[in-house]
């Protein structure tokens, strides 16, 4: 990238509009600086970035984006080159400039399990993947964030998080918990002793309180049947076979959980006792009955949104090698027909957004040598790869850049209540990813990977399209591919 020297001041708005001819300039008032924190690969806090493909104002086309003090100050749409001759500019040619990704569901495991992942490695991987905002789901922290005291442990680092709640817990008073933007409940126990499974009655009670604060409730929707012989599976079927794990966690679990939520979803309708609250289903895997129930709830006026994850859109059960526990996650990756149906639902708007559900662990917990799907830790390590994975597999379904920005930026920002993120618009925070959709790369041993443990990712060895060139967080260039894939900071607060 070349940065031209700035000579001369910016013209007044009317004069600029007259001089630009084909270009249109959109400007916002300057706000308090968000940059200047010494965490940038560029020595400037006032500059322009430009490209032939900028995703902004509901279109994709030539534009230049002015960044000042960490914010997007103006956008020149159209023939920007003559206008920028005497201004500091990074011209990315035909690369795509779009809003940075907002991942509303990732596990960074700190405090307590930084050996699995941590803020240092997790935020570096996010920056290298074009993710500019992370919402940490701190279930895998130790201790889990279920009380005021454990919340304080998390708040030593300035980031957004989900506040976990557990049945009958009185450790985290509602008046304090609900100050955070997102609440989380889980209908499926995950082997974390201080965070047991909840129930629909507890959820309905919590929604009444959340309605007062207009906060969403994020739910892992799987329900174990009342009669379940999980202990017998290990002895009867091959634990190395992926089909064994698939049978152990059928779509009926998701269906049962969502059926249990029907009354709670109805409560969020206009006039319901939880009007103002919002139910969000995380990592939906079942694209059949479970999805149908959620579609019905939406059509009836319930405030419900749904996410799925790139691994459900990229992989199918038929492709998972036996013994390769890197592919184990919950809910599980299902068959190819289900994958196609998830894509169709995403394109039709029945699934609202995407998240990584980045859920790493220490390598020994994946039991990769043993290959036992029933005993291995479940979770896909994916944070750095979600943009190219989504694009690579979505191309055959005809996805557009605007849809990609909606699923990964605009709608997640709305869910998290981030009013000045999720779009390339004047007045918004300058959180931006620049990438080349056509550029292919092989995720081999030579590719820089910033996760704590690179060898546990199911994406290793894959051929992908969509190389990340640059990531800007609050106007700071925190990742640059042409600077030998350099990340600016050891830990990024994003």
UniProtKB/TrEMBL annotation:
<feature type="domain" description="Allantoinase composite">
    <location>
        <begin position="42"/>
        <end position="95"/>
    </location>
</feature>
<keyword id="KW-0378">Hydrolase</keyword>
<keyword id="KW-0479">Metal-binding</keyword>
<dbReference type="GO" id="GO:0010136">
    <property type="term" value="P:ureide catabolic process"/>
</dbReference>
<dbReference type="GO" id="GO:0005783">
    <property type="term" value="C:endoplasmic reticulum"/>
</dbReference>
<dbReference type="InterPro" id="IPR050138">
    <property type="entry name" value="DHOase/Allantoinase_Hydrolase"/>
</dbReference>
<comment type="function">
    <text>Catalyzes the conversion of allantoin (5-ureidohydantoin) to allantoate by hydrolytic cleavage of the five-member hydantoin ring. Catalyzes the first step of the ureide allantoin degradation followed by the sequential activity of AAH, UGLYAH and UAH which allows a complete purine breakdown without the intermediate generation of urea.</text>
</comment>
<comment type="subunit">
    <text>Homotetramer.</text>
</comment>
<dbReference type="InterPro" id="IPR006680">
    <property type="entry name" value="Amidohydro-rel"/>
</dbReference>
<dbReference type="Pfam" id="PF24890">
    <property type="entry name" value="ALN_composite"/>
</dbReference>
<dbReference type="GO" id="GO:0004038">
    <property type="term" value="F:allantoinase activity"/>
</dbReference>
<dbReference type="GO" id="GO:0006145">
    <property type="term" value="P:purine nucleobase catabolic process"/>
</dbReference>
<dbReference type="GO" id="GO:0006995">
    <property type="term" value="P:cellular response to nitrogen starvation"/>
</dbReference>
<keyword id="KW-0862">Zinc</keyword>
<dbReference type="GO" id="GO:0046872">
    <property type="term" value="F:metal ion binding"/>
</dbReference>
<comment type="similarity">
    <text>Belongs to the metallo-dependent hydrolases superfamily. Allantoinase family.</text>
</comment>
<protein>
    <recommendedName>
        <fullName>allantoinase</fullName>
        <ecNumber>3.5.2.5</ecNumber>
    </recommendedName>
</protein>
<feature type="domain" description="Amidohydrolase-related">
    <location>
        <begin position="96"/>
        <end position="478"/>
    </location>
</feature>
<dbReference type="InterPro" id="IPR056854">
    <property type="entry name" value="ALN_composite"/>
</dbReference>
<dbReference type="Pfam" id="PF01979">
    <property type="entry name" value="Amidohydro_1"/>
</dbReference>
<comment type="pathway">
    <text>Nitrogen metabolism; (S)-allantoin degradation; allantoate from (S)-allantoin: step 1/1.</text>
</comment>
<dbReference type="InterPro" id="IPR032466">
    <property type="entry name" value="Metal_Hydrolase"/>
</dbReference>
<dbReference type="InterPro" id="IPR011059">
    <property type="entry name" value="Metal-dep_hydrolase_composite"/>
</dbReference>
């Amino acid at each position: 990238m070349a940065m031209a020297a700035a000579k001369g001041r910016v013209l007044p708005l009317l004069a600029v509009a007259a001089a630009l001819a084909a270009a249109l300039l959109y400007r916002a008032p300057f706000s308090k600086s968000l940059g200047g924190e010494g965490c940038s690969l560029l020595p400037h806090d006032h500059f322009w970035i430009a490209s032939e493909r900028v995703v902004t104002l509901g279109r994709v086309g030539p534009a230049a984006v002015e960044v000042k003090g960490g914010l997007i100050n103006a956008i020149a749409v159209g023939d920007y080159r003559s206008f920028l001759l005497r201004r500091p500019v990074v011209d990315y040619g035909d690369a795509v400039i779009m809003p940075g990704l907002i991942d509303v569901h990732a596990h960074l495991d700190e405090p307590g399990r930084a050996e699995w992942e941590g803020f240092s490695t997790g935020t570096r991987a996010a920056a290298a993947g074009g993710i500019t905002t992370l919402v940490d789901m701190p279930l895998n922290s130790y201790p889990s964030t279920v009380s005021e005291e454990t919340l304080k442990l998390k708040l030593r680092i300035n980031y957004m998080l989900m506040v976990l709640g557990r049945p009958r817990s009185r450790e985290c008073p509602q008046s304090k918990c609900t100050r955070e933007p997102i609440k989380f409940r889980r209908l499926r126990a995950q082997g974390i002793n201080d965070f047991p499974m909840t129930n629909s009655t507890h959820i309905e009670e919590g929604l009444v309180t959340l309605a007062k604060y207009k906060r969403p409730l994020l739910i892992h929707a799987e329900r174990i049947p009342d009669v379940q012989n999980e202990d017998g599976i290990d002895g009867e079927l091959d634990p190395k076979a992926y089909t064994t794990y698939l049978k152990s966690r059928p779509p009926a679990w998701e269906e049962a959980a969502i059926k249990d939520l029907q009354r709670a979803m109805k409560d969020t309708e206009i006039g319901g006792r939880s009007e103002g609250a919002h139910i969000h289903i995380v990592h939906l895997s079942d694209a059949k009955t479970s999805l149908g129930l959620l579609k019905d709830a939406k059509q009836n006026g319930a405030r419900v949104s749904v996410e799925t994850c790139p691994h459900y859109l990229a992989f199918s059960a038929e492709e998972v090698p036996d013994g390769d526990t890197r592919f184990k996650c919950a809910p599980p990756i299902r068959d190819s027909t289900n994958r196609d149906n998830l894509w169709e639902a995403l394109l039709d708007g029945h699934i609202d957004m995407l998240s990584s559900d980045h859920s790493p662990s220490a390598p020994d917990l994946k039991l990769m040598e043993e290959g036992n799907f029933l005993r291995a830790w479940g979770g896909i390590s994916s944070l750095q790869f979600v943009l190219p994975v989504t694009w690579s597999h979505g191309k055959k379904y005809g996805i557009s850049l605007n849809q990609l920005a909606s699923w990964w930026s605009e709608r997640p920002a709305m869910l998290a209540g981030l009013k000045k993120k999720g779009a390339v618009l004047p007045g918004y925070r300058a959180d931006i990813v620049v990438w080349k959709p056509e550029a292919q790369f092989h995720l081999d041993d030579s590719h820089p990977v910033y996760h704590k443990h690179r060898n546990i990712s199911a994406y290793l060895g894959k051929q992908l399209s969509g190389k990340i060139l640059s990531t800007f967080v609050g106007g700071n260039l925190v990742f640059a591919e042409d600077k030998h894939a350099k990340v600016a900071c050891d830990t990024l607060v994003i």
